């Protein structure tokens, strides 16, 4: 099992529909603080179910990781989801993504996975 911890710094985000939005982040290593990649995401609000679902693609050195996360606790801004697939050195990846949003456009993300 591998674990990677990141801090995502929002570059831009925009509403693109009544309940949809899209954006991108700079991905930094939580331990070194260096930029290690970028992500792009789309999201959709589900007001009746009180959740948000985001589809995310994260480009890192050697490949791309694709996942889907859900936010169901808006008070703590925590999310969780699955890593769906990968390319390059992340081909065959399986695992989970958890994290939380923080003030100042930051998001703390932890990936736990195996190849």
> CATH topology, anyone?
AOC barrel-like
What's the CATH H-level superfamily name?
A: Allene oxide cyclase-like
The tally of structural domains comes to 1
Largest sheet: 8 strands, antiparallel, barrel
The strand count comes to 8
Q: pLDDT below 50 for ≥5 consecutive residues: which ranges?
A: none
Notes on the protein architecture:
The chain has one domain (2-114): Beta Barrel (AOC barrel-like). With 115 residues, the protein is mainly β. The protein has no helices and 8 strands. The model has no long low-confidence stretch (mean pLDDT 95). Strands 1-2-3-4-5-6-7-8 form an 8-stranded antiparallel beta barrel. Strand 5 and strand 6 form a beta hairpin.
Blueprint of the fold:
Blueprint lengths: L1 E14 L4 E10 L5 E12 L4 E10 L2 E11 L4 E9 L7 E9 L3 E9 L1
Antiparallel strand pairs: 1-2, 1-8, 2-3, 3-4, 4-5, 5-6, 6-7, 7-8
Task: Summarize, please.
The protein has 115 residues and is an all-beta fold.
Primary descriptors:
115 residues; AOC barrel-like; eight-stranded antiparallel barrel; globular; mainly beta
């Amino acid at each position: 099992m591998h674990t990677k911890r990141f801090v995502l710094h929002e570059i831009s985000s925009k509403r693109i529909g009544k309940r949809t939005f899209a954006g991108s982040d700079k991905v930094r290593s939580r331990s070194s603080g260096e930029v290690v990649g970028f992500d792009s995401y789309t999201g959709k609000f589900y007001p009746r179910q009180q959740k948000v679902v985001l589809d995310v693609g994260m480009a890192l050195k050697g490949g791309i990781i694709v996942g889907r996360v859900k936010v169901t606790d808006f008070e703590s801004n925590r999310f969780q989801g699955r890593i769906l697939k990968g390319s390059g050195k992340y081909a065959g990846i399986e695992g989970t993504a958890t994290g939380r949003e923080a003030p100042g456009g930051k998001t703390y993300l932890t990936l736990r996975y195996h190849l």
